[in-house]
Design a protein that fits this description.
seven-stranded antiparallel beta sheet, 115 residues, Cupin_2, mainly beta, globular
Length: 115
């Protein structure tokens, strides 16, 4: 049996990534697709007005908006991203995420290699 590196999504099937999480009013829904010491891939669905407060990460974080509009504040700079747009939030810079409306995104974080 082979090891599974990507979880919680279909394998060897065509699917739409945006359909893998559902927006629920008043909530943030997340689904982890991969998590290890090198990478983290997570799908998120934000209800309008929901937010993840200011924090930082050891790795570079790239967000891609799959549906809707989200506001991202990175090191004091505001970015409004719409469907199809992406943004890299550099490692160790404070950032936050806010649902300007219901929106879905995929977050990929690449962590520094441990030597």
């Amino acid at each position: 049996m082979s090891q599974i590196y990507l979880k919680n999504i279909p394998h060897e099937s065509i699917f739409e990534l945006v359909g893998q999480v559902q927006t629920i009013p008043g909530q943030i829904v997340s689904k982890t697709l991969a998590q290890n010491s090198a990478v983290s891939i997570t799908l998120f669905a934000f209800g309008k007005g929901e937010e993840i407060g200011t924090h930082d990460s050891d790795g570079d974080a790239m967000v891609s908006v799959l549906e809707g509009t989200g506001k991202f504040i990175v090191d004091g700079h505001e970015y409004i991203l719409k469907t199809g747009q992406s943004l890299v939030m550099p490692a160790n810079k404070p950032h936050s995420v806010y649902g300007e409306e219901d929106f879905k995104m995929i977050l990929t974080v690449i962590f520094p290699s441990s030597k």
